[in-house]
Amino acid sequence: MSEPVTTNPFVIMLINMTVVFIVLIALGLVINLIHAIDPTKEKAAPQKEAPAPAPTPAAPAPEPVSADGVSPEVIAVIAAALASYGYGPAAIRAVRPIERDGWKNAGRSFGVQRTLE
Asked: C-alpha distances in angstroms, 36 versus 43, 45, 47?
């Protein structure tokens, strides 16, 4: 049997990484070529510049109901955040704070564990 060309792990690493990156670059070129000659892609027909439709005024949002200590400012901020995602005022059904008892329950559990020890 013949002896290996090198036993230096750094040279082997560089050779392997070079091969991997060459293959990745070749795959990227093949993917770009497929996108360029894709026969299933619809041909873009030249479109005439259509006048932009006049923006319709947004429907007035219902007056927020302050329940469970949620201030109208907080509801306005939540509504603005949802509007930035594309939801309209009709999409907001209710704003309710969730109960977060994690710290309270963890403290109780810790206290019970200490008394049992």
From this structure: 12, 17, 21
List, as one string, the DSSP characters of 25-38: HHHHHHHHHHHHT-
**Cα Rg of the chain, angstroms:** 31
Number of domains in the chain: 2
Q: Please report, in tens digits, the pLDDT of each residue of the chain (117 residues total).
A: 678 778 889 999 999 999 999 999 999 999 999 988 887 877 766 677 766 676 766 666 555 555 556 788 888 888 888 889 888 878 777 777 777 788 888 888 888 888 887
Range of the domain at 4: 1-39
Domain assignment present for 80: yes
- Residue 81, in any domain of the structure: yes
70 occurs within a structural domain: yes
